[in-house]
Write a structure and sequence with these properties.
36% strand; alpha+beta; six-stranded antiparallel sheet; 18% helix; 3 helices; 152 residues
Length: 152
Amino acid sequence: MPDTTIKKVEAGTSPRGEMGQRSLVAGKRVSMRLWIDEPGGKLKEPTRRDYETVGYAISGNARLDLEGQTLNLKAGDSWLVPAGAMHQYTIIEPFTAVEATAPPAEGHNFECLPEGVRDWFEDFLAAKFAGVPFEAFKEEMEGREQTAAFFA
């Protein structure tokens, strides 16, 4: 049976993420986020993510340094940051943009969890979204410390 779930998220009341973004709607395979008037002169740390990002600039200017290439972003531009690519944004003037990530970035931000728990939880979500039956997942993960605690 196909998934018929629909969702709506209003930007004005959407939750803010740890990087300042507004988290918009998210599905099982893609999510959206909105950056509103990111301040000019802001240099974000170089990073590498395990999800793919596509973006669309609504207003302002930014520079994206991506694996030795430089993209100057302005209103109307769109871009792609491949999964695993080292990249860094520099906000030149207040910048507003919308991005979509696949798989959903929100499902991959477990930095606040201890490493062993984070790895276990990421494996759990990967199995869930791959359609692995819960009992099969539980059996496969049986020897891991976090599994014993989870099912206690």
